[in-house]
TrEMBL record:
Residues 86-211 form the Phosphotyrosine protein phosphatase I domain. CDD domains: LMWP_ArsC. Gene3D superfamilies: 3.40.50.2300, Corynebacterium glutamicum thioredoxin-dependent arsenate reductase, N-terminal domain. This is Arsenate reductase ArsC. It holds the Pfam family Phosphatase-like_N. SUPFAM superfamilies: Phosphotyrosine protein phosphatases I (SSF52788). InterPro entries: Phosphatase-like_N, Ptyr_pPase, Ptyr_pPase_sf. Keywords: Arsenical resistance. It comes from Luedemannella flava.
Length: 220
């Protein structure tokens, strides 16, 4: 069996955390994929974040969450698992502002009735603090979100792909439904200037959910 840890400088704690993550993912996808496929996705996902020293202690957790999303997406693409819920992918350049706010509204408003993902063509290091603060004003916590790249299986599994400023860098797959939302970039802006962007995103997300036939919950 290939040593998937080769090339990684892992602490003992990280090794234990990744083995534990592999066990959890193995249990979740036991009816779909074998241990080798699951571990391959887990370590590939770890590699996506390995050079970001600011989140070093969270790397195994981020890798597990990203691998779970990717495995779920692949299972849908391959027809191995599909619960019928619509899947929407929000994309921007850094996956730090617009797409994270859109995902926050989408998940909050749709609840369990739909699935939302986000990604970036050039993922940043952290979610924009002004976006976090602006969303907190609406009672939505996005502090646990993190910038991540899009992957082929995630794009292919989405029913709708919403792009926000990533232009030609956004992935295009024939037959996929695409929406392009022209929105100001909140990067480098304070909360006061992010609020109008946030409100426009909420309006568009509500419209998208209505178009998909997904009822929206109220925001307290």
């Amino acid at each position: 069996m290939t040593d998937l840890t080769a090339g990684f400088d892992l602490t003992m704690d990280q090794q234990v955390a990744l083995r534990t993550a592999a066990t959890r993912l193995g249990a979740e996808f036991a009816d779909v994929y074998g241990p080798e496929t699951i571990e391959r996705f887990l370590y590939a996902s770890y590699d996506q974040f390995a050079d970001r020293s600011s989140i070093a202690k969270f790397l195994p957790l981020l890798a597990e969450r990203f691998a779970r999303q990717r495995l779920g997406a692949l299972a849908k693409v391959e027809g191995r698992r599909d619960d019928g819920r619509p899947v929407v992918l929000f994309l921007c350049v850094h996956n730090a502002g617009r797409s994270q706010m859109a995902l926050g509204f989408f998940q909050h408003l749709a609840g369990d009735a739909a699935v939302g993902w986000s990604g970036g063509s050039e993922p940043g290091i952290e979610v924009n603090p002004s976006a976090v603060a602006a969303m907190a004003e609406r009672g939505i916590d996005i502090t646990t979100k993190y910038p991540k790249p899009w992957t082929d299986e995630v794009v292919r599994a989405a029913d709708v792909v919403v792009s926000m400023g990533c232009g030609d860098a956004c992935p295009i797959f024939p037959g996929k439904r695409y929406l392009n939302w022209e929105l100001d970039d909140p990067a480098g802006q304070d909360v006061e200037h992010v609020r109008p962007i946030r409100d426009e995103i909420e309006r568009r997300v509500r419209g998208l959910l209505a178009d998909l036939g997904v009822p929206s919950v109220n925001i307290r």
